What does this fold into?
Amino acid sequence: MRISDTERREVAENLRNLTIGRSIQYKEQFFDELAEVVVGFEDYHDFNVVLEKLADLIEPQPIDGNTSDGYHTFNELYHHRAVLFSVIVENFAARAWKSKLHADGTMYEGMFIVGIETPDGQATYHYDVEPYWNLFRCKEVDRAPEWDGHTPDQAIERIGKLVDCKTDRPTTHIDVNEHGRACCANCGCDDWCLADSSRYCPNCGAEVVG
It folds into this structure.
């Protein structure tokens, strides 16, 4: 049974009110009032049930994606980070890349890595392929560049310094190659479908204009 943080606070406050400034003369009276606070109704005399509920209230819940600090869950913060970083990648597409493999060919199950090259080095994050792969509109590489050893603290520090860099997304237009296929005028890539009205080259990340 999952106990909400709100319920924990309410019960804790009720327990404080029960024990502060009140005179309880008999153990039976104390137990009845304790049972009312913990279980939720009067005259509940199953001592084991009351103890079990108290144990549930005291025992920490397992930490998972639904764990909250009282304001946001880990899942919510993870999603926010993905969306916010995708905006950074969008605005610095020439510096960004994504891959389903690390440099050594490994990858965490169901995940990919996306990175951006800052003036001070890499800043990278891992995300679940579903639903985040298509959120990052930048070039895809077979394998990620070799990790430069940056820590999470260094990554966010480097991202912060991008504010001093101009937005440098390259632009391109649709051209026709020697095979008669529509291609990117910037890099020659023809691995895309104009029927999908893609605005970005999947190879170099250039924005299609004109």
